[in-house]
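Private note to self, pasted from the team thread so I don't lose it. Backbone tokens:
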């Protein structure tokens, strides 16, 4: 079955799903995106993702190209057209097509593109054994809370991690404070069993998985502290983990080659993983071993 994508009102073969040369997303990174996982053809945390998408659009003064109900219908039709039970849905909305000039063009219609891919969940070994991360100097723009398609600094950080054989890059500022990962949020667990993670302010992209996991943690009466943590705190942590739509929850067992505690996924992380799998099952009917 051919892969189908969606561009500005049309369902097209993926190879024919093209954007205009003067689309401002292509020329200026003037747009936003959203990534959602789906299981059993049910989008996970759809309401939360749509809320974040609309917030990002408002911050850039870009209109949603269609009503929320219409967008929800198109997303479901696209999943069905690709005949996938589990997978990932990517949405990108730019300011639109206009003559190349930096100021916002007048009366331009936003462009929307969507694509479906297969599942991107971690390998079983990564979940059971944990993954490694390396630290990279923070060099992104100041509005990281907007899910902008301008991701060059993230790309460079992720490439450093890949070249080092690590799963992810953790971004560290000039004061030695960790913000988040190149493509994920992160957290550590201290000796008191407290979960510490950067607050969802303008310095990080507030992840949907992050928010759900913190809610689950609080309901399970685990202590959560939303504050910046230092690289030295990370090295001394009893546990560490990362969260994202495509990674769910992944234990981090090495940071810059340094073993986290005994080098095995810790009890708090494993408890959160079990709670998150239950959340997925409740939302979508997806069962986890």
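Design output:
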């Amino acid at each position: 079955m051919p892969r189908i994508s969606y561009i500005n009102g049309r369902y097209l073969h993926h190879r024919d799903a093209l954007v205009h040369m003067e689309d401002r997303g292509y020329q200026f990174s003037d747009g936003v995106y959203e990534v959602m996982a789906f299981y059993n053809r049910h989008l996970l945390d759809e309401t939360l993702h749509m809320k974040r998408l609309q917030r990002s659009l408002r911050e850039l003064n870009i209109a949603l190209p269609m009503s929320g109900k219409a967008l929800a219908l198109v997303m479901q039709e696209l999943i069905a057209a690709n005949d996938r039970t589990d997978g990932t849905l990517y949405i990108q909305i730019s300011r639109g097509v206009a003559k190349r000039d930096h100021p916002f063009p007048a009366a331009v219609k936003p462009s929307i593109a969507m694509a479906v891919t297969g599942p991107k969940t971690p390998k079983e070994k990564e979940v059971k054994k944990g993954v490694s991360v390396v630290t990279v100097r923070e060099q992104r723009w100041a509005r990281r809370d907007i899910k902008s398609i301008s991701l060059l600094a993230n790309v460079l950080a992720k490439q450093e991690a890949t070249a080092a054989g690590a799963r992810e890059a953790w971004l560290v500022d000039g004061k030695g404070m960790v913000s988040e990962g190149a493509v994920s949020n992160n957290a550590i667990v201290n000796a008191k069993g407290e979960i510490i993670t950067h607050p969802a302010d303008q310095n990080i992209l507030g992840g949907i998985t992050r928010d759900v996991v913190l809610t689950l943690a609080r309901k399970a009466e685990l202590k959560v502290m939303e504050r910046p943590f230092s690289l030295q705190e990370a090295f001394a942590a009893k546990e560490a983990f990362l969260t994202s739509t495509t990674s769910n929850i992944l234990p981090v067992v090495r940071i810059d080659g340094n073993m986290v505690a005994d080098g095995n996924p810790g009890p708090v992380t494993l408890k959160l993983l079990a709670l998150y799998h239950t959340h997925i099952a409740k939302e979508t009917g997806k069962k986890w071993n």
